[in-house]
Amino acid sequence: MPNTVFGLECIESNIYIGDRAGIIAITQLPLIFAFTARNNLFSVITGWPYRTFNIFHRWISRFVVVLIFLHAIFYYDSARRNGDYIQRWGLTKWRFAHVGILSGFILGITSVYPFRNKFYEAFKSCHQVFSILFIVGTWYHCVTLGWMEFLYVTIGLWGLDHMIRFFKIMVSGGVVAANCELIISKRDSFGSLSSEIAVGHTIKVTINHSGYWRHYPGCYVFVYFLKPNMFWQSHPFTTIEPSVVQAANQLVLLIRVKEGVTSQLSEFLLSQPEYKAKISVLVEGPYGSPIGFRGYQNAIFVAGGIGITVVYTLALDLARQHKAEILRGDAKASDRSVTLYWITPSIESIESSVDEIAAMSEIGCLNLKIFITRQHGFSLPHNRGIPSFIDLLSTKPEKNRLGGIQSATLEMCIPSFVQESGSKDSIVLDELSPLIYANMLYGEIGSFNDTPPFTQHREEQVKAATPSGKGSSRVSHTQEFSWAGTPPLTLLKPSDKLQLYHDILLENLPRVEIKWGVKPSMKTEIVENVGKLSGTTAVVACGPDRLNCDTRDGTIKAMRDSGNERIDYFEEKLLW
């Protein structure tokens, strides 16, 4: 019997398969947009983080792209067999089908990991533009065919998400001021220290919003920096609890300088006095679900680099709870333990987190172990006129917490400092001996007035230790030095943070340990640490993939060796 509808059986098969693929694809659109929304009802119900639903979004999207491809191929073949391919271009639904198909393919191609990772800003812009084109193309393709209810729901979810975003921005205060401070590292073109080339390392942003909501562990916000070259961009940043709460509405962000908007911010701050500026921003938040670590007797946090922003508040919150339990008599100090491992390549990370490190040292239930894996020297905060002091710290000084530094071997390049006329921030010294140079670098920083409170003993020590003869060239010294733990000569501009910075480096703060040039094996550290604990333990990692894998492997081995003790592993995602 002749086929009165399709003419040929192969065309009939093509239409059936093509329609089925297209219908299944359009039914998935609400899920694609729902799972990628920042304000996701499913996330509120389940407590699952945004990244979990983002994985769902990616895989459903890939599935839909394959279905669209099949839908297009079978319809192209049908048009070719019917001989009406050219005539179909006169149909609105045919033309807009091509808009939707091409937009979907571009979305799929630009979403692959290598492109997304290397050209994130381009990926994000393509996603925004071509998602709109895809919906427009699908709308006009289906408006005469049906299944519009799926598009109504999709557009409704998209609009609702953006309405809630706008509402959160208004609740946070609309346009608010952000105090931005750039922590710099000074490098030359070969990667060694240079006093002439400043490179942004970390941006510390302090924002006072409306105060209608409070920071909580696991909280993050999207920030729009209202500058002409970036105002349309928004990126998620983890908030950390202010070390000294000056107001209930204060947010603190630590942002590692990378490419894109952070690089543009860094370049702007480098041109500002003292690398500081006040920038108008929009704050969209809060986002993120509180993480329930309070049920654990012990916790081990592992942070890599800027990952400290994620685990800092979590560790601080748990340590405070443990301290309260101990003070109430509900637990013994020996039954509670919070340890934080922070592995960072450079000392600039410490400079950007001075207040936070001090806050952790004051809790009493939190032990902080910092590993600086690559020591390039450091720049003193807020001292643009003084170059960085160390080119290479060859070995870690052997320290005594009560007596200061007793002995050490230090290889350093000693510059000459030339006082500028009328400048109070520079110092008059020619070539310094290693003793005075290291004393100035590592010592306790006191106050500095117009008339420095130097004792006669200290003045004589300077004269005795300063070599005679003048010169301006850099000379290299390797010398063993030692001194008692008395306050050293004060030659630096007054700064409470500077004093705290040096206390951290000297390990003068309780429960803060620093190891130089050492990269720990977290597989071994986790096993050894868990072996000393009793009770339930949570292990939390936030860092590069390699660090997370090592921590996970160590946790698995600790689980096997722990017997009946419960050990849970959590892996947090660094947002930016």
From TrEMBL:
Signal peptide: none annotated. Belongs to the ferric reductase (FRE) family. Keywords: Electron transport, FAD, Flavoprotein, Glycoprotein, Ion transport, Membrane, Oxidoreductase, Transmembrane, Transmembrane helix, Transport. Its main location: membrane. Residues 177-293 form the FAD-binding FR-type domain. The keyword Repeat does not apply. The keyword Transport applies. Pfam families: FAD_binding_8 (PF08022), Ferric_reduct (PF01794), NAD_binding_6 (PF08030). The lineage of its organism: Eukaryota, Fungi, Dikarya, Ascomycota, Saccharomycotina. It comes from the Eukaryota. This is FAD-binding FR-type domain-containing protein. It comes from Babjeviella inositovora NRRL Y-12698. The chain crosses the membrane at residues 59-76, 96-116, 128-154. It is a multi-pass membrane protein. It is found in: Membrane. GO terms for cellular component: plasma membrane. GO terms for molecular function: ferric-chelate reductase activity. GO terms for biological process: copper ion import; intracellular iron ion homeostasis; iron ion transport. InterPro entries: FAD-bd_8, FAD-bd_FR_type, Fe3_Rdtase_TM_dom, Fe_red_NAD-bd_6, Ferric/Cupric_Reductase, FNR_nucleotide-bd.
